[in-house]
Amino acid sequence: MDWTQLPLGPLATNCYVLSHGKECVIFDPGSEGETLAKWLDENSLRPLAILLTHAHFDHIGAVEHIRQTFNIPVYVHKAEEQWLENPELNGSNRFGLGAITASPADFILHLEEELEIGPFQFKLYHTPGHSPGSLSFYFEEGGALFAGDTLFMGSIGRTDLPGGNHQELLNSIHNKLLALPEETIVLPGHGPATSIISEMDSNPFLNGF
């Protein structure tokens, strides 16, 4: 199984495509829906689902285009069930980019459980702090964590947006993510990939926690 990082949109939000053969799942199609659809077609990939680590505007901008193009379902956490339709909640009204919306998700996630989609299996971790419905998807087979805006290389998610909470974010990282195997690759919503052990050793936001 392979994953590809595709930075999209004005904030270079990382969309990830995790593929196995010709089947794939898409994490956080944040913008440039036509570009993403073309890339999928050029690589002869058949998407099975869109998985959202959270529903901030920069992670959902291409949701509707990709959903309709490939006729696939969207998954989001229950705490952000209303955010796709609401530009006040998803934050798009705050940044002068116009209202960014999508239709309601097809599947609402609320338990920390195993999620199986086609050949892909994930362990779900609810990791609030950056946003109330932030999810991290642990792909154990590939040793990778799709972490959204919870944990970055040398940094952590911002907590100054509605529903953000700095201490809650630190708790999520410490109790959920740092408990994963140290060699786990962390695939963040912005910037380069990192690893659990690298962030344990050098992330200044986690030192002394």
From TrEMBL:
Q: Which domain of life is it from?
A: Bacteria
Q: Keyword annotations for this protein?
A: Hydrolase, Metal-binding, Zinc
Family annotation (InterPro entries): MBL_Glyoxalase_II (IPR051453), Metallo-B-lactamas (IPR001279), RibonucZ/Hydroxyglut_hydro (IPR036866)
Task: List, alphabetically, the CDD domains matched.
Answer: metallo-hydrolase-like_MBL-fold (cd06262)
Q: Name one GO molecular function term.
A: metal ion binding
Q: Which Pfam families match?
A: Lactamase_B
Annotated ranges, domain Metallo-beta-lactamase: 12-190
What this protein needs as a cofactor is: Zn(2+)
Q: What is this protein called?
A: Metallo-beta-lactamase domain-containing protein
